[in-house]
Every structure is written in structure tokens, then in C-alpha cells.
Write a structure and sequence with these properties.
- The chain has 121 residues and is an all-beta fold.
- The protein is built from no helices and eleven strands.
- The radius of gyration is 13 Å and the shape is globular.
């Protein structure tokens, strides 16, 4: 019953934007730090961004700094990943995960099934 559900993925043109959402099923997100990860075909999963429980601190992979924004609305029990100026390197399956400590190398106990993001003209 502990489940995270990502939504908002799809096809976007280079330079476009998408906003991903991460919503829980069976628990409240404000107990957890949240991380966003992505995995492209044939590549290892990589951390994209993470946010602390209160949303006061965030972290981004170097490749997405200035383009992606992570945020959370604990009252609505949702975490977002706003992606702008997207390029083909941003393609992949995006996952959100919940853990105790924010950090892209931290351990995350709960993972979603992912949402597909395709960047193509």
C-alpha cells in the first residue's frame, strides 16, 4: 500500500517543458525527503534533484541546474519537478522516491514506477 505515483510525463520538443508530479498512496509525503531520478535506456539511473522534508533545501544534478526546479506542497501531499529548456539528454523514465534524508546518493525506501519522458522533434 506504500506507493508513489509519478505523472506528467510525455513527449516534448527540445526547448519545451514538462512538470512532473509525485503523489503518494498510503502515506503522507511530509515525513520524507523526496528525490527525483531518471534512467535512460542502456544507462544507469542517475539522481536529478532532491528536496528536504520541509522544502527548505534542494539539490540538483549539474546537468539540470538552472533548468529544473523541484518543489513540494505538503498541504497537498505532492512533490513537483518542473523541467524547462529540455533537451534530448533529458529523456528517460523519471522516478520519484521517498527517504529519510535528502540527497541524490541517499537511501530511498519507497519508489514509484516511473513516468516516461521523451524529448524529440
Amino acid at each position: 500500500q506504500l506507493q508513489l505515483v509519478e505523472s506528467g510525463g510525455g513527449l516534448v520538443q527540445p526547448g519545451g517543458s514538462l512538470r512532473l508530479s509525485c503523489a503518494p498512496s498510503g502515506f503522507t509525503l511530509d515525513y520524507y525527503a523526496i528525490g527525483w531520478f531518471r534512467q535512460a535506456p542502456g544507462k544507469e539511473r542517475e539522481g536529478v534533484s532532491c528536496i528536504t522534508k520541509s522544502g527548505g533545501f534542494t539539490e540538483y544534478a549539474e546537468s539540470v541546474k538552472g533548468r529544473f526546479t523541484i518543489s513540494r506542497d505538503n498541504a497537498k501531499n505532492v512533490v513537483y519537478l518542473q523541467m524547462k529548456s529540455m533537451n534530448p539528454e533529458d529523456k528517460g523514465v523519471y522516478y520519484c522516491a521517498a527517504g529519510w534524508v535528502a540527497g541524490m546518493n541517499a537511501e530511498y525506501a519507497h519508489w514509484g514506477q516511473g513516468t516516461q519522458v521523451t524529448v524529440s522533434s
